[in-house]
Amino acid sequence: MLTVRTDLAVEAHALWKESAGETTQLPGVAAREETLDGFPLTFVEILDQEGENALHKPQGSYYTLDITDFWKRQPDGFQRAAGALSRILASLIPEEGPVLICGLGNAAMTPDALGPRTLDHLLITRHLKDVLPGFRPVAALGAGVLGSTGLEAAEWVRGAAEHVRPAAVVAVDALAARELSRLCSTVQISDTGLSPGSGVGNHRMALDRETLGVPVISVGVPTVVDAETVARDILAEAGGTGGAPAALHGQGKRLFVTPDSIDAKIRELAKLLGYGLDMALQPGLDLEDLDALLA
Fold first, then answer.
1. Which residues pair with 42 in a beta bridge?
2. Contacts of 259 (CB under 8 A, 6+ apart)
3. How far apart are CA 73 and CA 204, in angstroms?
4. How many whole angstroms from its chain centre is CA 211?
5. By the 8 A CB rule, do 2 and 232 touch?
6. Beta carbons of 43 and 214 less than 8 angstroms apart
């Protein structure tokens, strides 16, 4: 059987509706669509165990911001996108107390480097409390990957959290999507934490309130789609069938597709996420302030 991999709650919800029928009501899940600063925003809330079982995601709130227009290079595009992200994040992060931001992923593998690269655009202030008393304390951690450190990302983060004692942890990571159109064009923000690698079939120890003892906000952008799903869609479109032949199943299980411009996209997305976090955590600052402080 073909397994469709996705880290996005909005895609899981759409896939459920596709299989059950558009008019079928999904128990335990609430969803709505709106616009934020000109960008489409979808909100999916998983309310109970029944919703968890249907979408295979933990209970909580999932905000999916469609930033396709961000790539149109409009003069105010970056400002609007960063502002939209900051407003969503500010609604989920506790208003007071230190915050620990963790960049997850492999910095040496471009599609997986979003988390570590985002740290380059953060205003780190925890060590400057005597110099900048008006700034919220922010600490950052590049957790690395198990293959190069021998430690789960959750172990790194838990150790840092025990020392920093944050009011919340924010985990930034690259995700997997089901649809090619969502690559580098969707930002998912959730209050449920995350399980690194789950979208590519490489489940690791979860980072969530249960494992860390504090709220965990996850921020992610899909950068890959598994090749088997892409091949199925191409064959279905070419032949008008609803699925791929049995011979295809398993052939692309460990292959993933990413945009040819992924280097440039990761560079710009890292800055966008970093500035969105900075504006959420230091609401008195604007883009010009951040450009000056982070130059």
1. 33, 64
2. 183, 184, 223, 265
3. 36
4. 19
5. yes
6. no
